[in-house]
Amino acid sequence: MSEKHLKAGDPLPPYNGKLRLFAMRFCPYAERSVLVLNAKNLQYDLVFINLDSKPEWLFEFNPKGSVPALEYEQGKAIFDSAIINTYLDEKYPEVPLQATDPLRRAQDKVFVELFLGAHSSFYVAAFNPDGFQPSHLEAYSKGLERLEKELEVRGTKFLHSNEPGLVDYTIWPHLERFESLPLLGKADMAIDGTKYPRVTSYLEAMKQVPAVKQYYLSAETHAKFVESKTKGEANYNMLDTSDVCCMRPRKKKQ
């Protein structure tokens, strides 16, 4: 299998009739859609993109040139993880990932929106540590506190229910990356199990979810990618094991 990221000048791989997701292996937004595809047990191909040298044909699927983009029919695509994932959940309802109650669906979206501050703080801490301010640590801590409280209020194993849903697959990719922060010199951003016991249990539970296990990368792997990117030499292909460019994801041995 391959995790080679295609770049400018590389040809578009042949279309095989399946759903096809254009992604970047270390992109949390693309990971959201991978997790939903996995959770729904859908057959799909992955095409990884070098975001520093984008293939010209990527813009045919997303004029913004960003990932993820989902090719749902040959030459036809939608983009943005929130749009893609809602489409997948409605198009393939056999494994529903959203609450049936409209209010709970709205509350899930509100929670995701409020958790964005923690996402932003992670990016500053990881990729621009010189710009990190006390306000970033405050926003990060507030996000973890909000998640801790939400898990307590809902009283379920996952935010969705006792099975993970769209809200969980939406916030998980960033939580997965949060664990790399101590390895990047941010010991004060480690997730303290005594302070956040429910968050800690939630993290461990999510790691055991089949849809997550197929695509999960360790904190060490995420830290290595961040370090390569901050040095100006993003190592997109650090996980590549063959010359095949389209693949089904699998769990990596770290």
TrEMBL record:
Q: Which InterPro entries match?
A: Glutathione-S-Trfase_C-like, Glutathione-S-Trfase_C_sf, Glutathione_S-Trfase, Glutathione_S-Trfase_N, GST_omega, GST_Omega/HSP26, Thioredoxin-like_sf
> Does the UniProt entry include the keyword Phosphoprotein?
no
Q: What Pfam families does the annotation carry?
A: GST_C_2 (PF13410), GST_N_2 (PF13409)
* E.C. no: 2.5.1.18
Question: Which residues does the UniProt record annotate as the domain GST C-terminal?
Answer: 101-232
| Domain spans labelled GST N-terminal | 17-96
Asked if the keyword Ion transport belongs to this entry, the reply reads no
Q: Name one GO cellular component term.
A: cytoplasm
Query: GO:BP terms for this protein?
Result: glutathione metabolic process
Gene3D superfamilies from the UniProt entry: 1.20.1050.10, Glutaredoxin
Superkingdom of origin = Eukaryota
Q: Which UniProt keywords apply?
A: Oxidoreductase, Transferase
Under Gene Ontology molecular function, one entry of this record is: glutathione dehydrogenase (ascorbate) activity
Question: Which family, according to UniProt?
Answer: Belongs to the GST superfamily. Omega family.
PANTHER family on file: GLUTATHIONE S-TRANSFERASE OMEGA, PTHR43968
Can you name this protein? Glutathione S-transferase omega-3
Annotated source species: Cydia pomonella (Codling moth)
Lineage of the source organism?
Answer: Eukaryota, Metazoa, Ecdysozoa, Arthropoda, Hexapoda
